[in-house]
Design brief:
This protein is α/β, with parallel strands linked by helices. It has eleven helices and 16 strands. Strands 3, 5, 6, 7, 8, 15 and 16 form a seven-stranded mixed β-sheet that branches. The protein has a six-stranded parallel β-sheet with strand order 11-10-9-12-13-14, with helices on both faces. InterPro entries: ADH-like_C, ADH-like_N, ER, GroES-like_sf, NAD(P)-bd_dom_sf, QOR-like.
């Protein structure tokens, strides 16, 4: 087995490729021969030490492949099944992953390995944000930061399908075009414009019902300042770094606003919830109601470069690793 590990926290340079014996499944586990692994911002949080973990540890948490072996008592899947998994720290960037059978998600016909891994963390995140966090109504104006990112493109599509007026932010003309194609009615270039001023202009001074913020430190103040009275700032990520403490009085002054920090794990905590949400996303993809965008696929040995590209904002859509390359 080949895998990417890190023995200390730090920049992308701490990621190293290692050879080790192929793993064997324990009771209730399966071994998945990984064909594609997903690269997510949460992977950089573990690498940097923002999310504590014992060292050394494997990198990544998401993948798709074929069940190569099953452990005692496994009934959910069988050898030869194509499955995906996510939110399993240390089991992503590798040729073989050990996955609890209850976390193995069957991949339906009609969805490629690349599509499946693109629909897991990011697709299910966009789904719970738009279906559970806040009931977005027809004509509601919402703000989506990083609208051309992996989650942003899917989130924008789902919100637009619900009838929302999406204001997206991005940092380049290429990303602006991608956000518009995904359904954003307005695009704000935050490298050129003041987000708060532009949102107030677009909304006639009213502000937005919801600000979906996966960027964090660089955008949180603008997200709250853009809210309409009784609006919600949904902070679901921190690609620019963790957010400092926020004085609740800021929410009061903004008009009795709300701040939430949800996570996908809470919304897929049981196998029933995981299967229900993954099926919902896969159904949208199969019906051509949700377009998945794969940005770039890197060989496993280039995981460090994938992290550098992700952190430098040079990417759009989903970044993948090919363990066989």
């Amino acid at each position: 087995m080949r895998s990417i590990v890190f023995e200390k926290h730090g920049g992308a340079e701490v990621l190293e490729i290692r050879e080790s014996p192929d793993p064997q499944p324990g009771p209730g586990e399966v071994v998945v021969e990984v064909t594609r692994a997903g690269v997510n911002f949460i992977d950089t949080y573990y690498r940097e030490g923002l999310y504590p973990t014992e060292l050394p540890v494997g990198a990544g948490n998401e993948g798709v492949g074929t069940v190569a072996a099953v452990g005692e008592g496994v009934t959910e899947v069988a050898v030869g099944d194509r499955v995906g998994y996510c939110l399993l720290p240390g089991q992503g960037y590798r040729t073989h992953a050990v996955v609890p059978a209850e976390k193995a998600v069957p991949i339906p016909e009609g969805i490629s390995d690349e599509g499946a891994v693109s629909a897991l963390v990011q697709g299910m995140t966009a789904h719970f944000l738009t279906h559970d966090v806040w009931e977005v109504g027809e004509g509601d104006t919402v703000l989506v930061h990083a609208a051309a990112g992996g989650v942003g493109l899917l989130l924008t599509q789902m919100l637009a399908a619900q009838g929302a007026v999406v204001i997206g932010t991005c940092s380049s003309a290429h990303k602006a075009a991608a956000g518009t194609e995904a359904g954003a009615a307005h695009i704000i270039r935050y490298d050129r414009e003041d987000v708060t001023e532009r949102v107030r202009e677009i909304t006639g001074g009213q502000g937005v019902k919801v600000a979906f913020d996966g960027v964090g430190a660089a955008t949180i103040e603008a997200s709250i300042a853009c809210l309409a009275p009784r609006g919600l700032c949904c902070l679901f990520g921190a690609s620019s770094g963790p957010v400092d403490a926020i004085d609740p009085q800021v929410l009061n002054k903004q008009g009795s606003c709300y701040l939430q920090r949800p996570t996908l794990g809470t919304y897929t905590a049981t196998r029933e919830a995981l299967l229900e949400r993954s099926r919902a996303v896969f159904d949208l993809v199969i019906a051509d109601e949700l377009r998945l965008t794969v940005g770039k696929t890197y060989p496993l040995a280039e995981a460090a470069q994938a992290h550098r590209d992700l952190e430098s904002r040079r990417t759009s859509g989903k970044q993948l690793l090919d363990p066989s390359a």
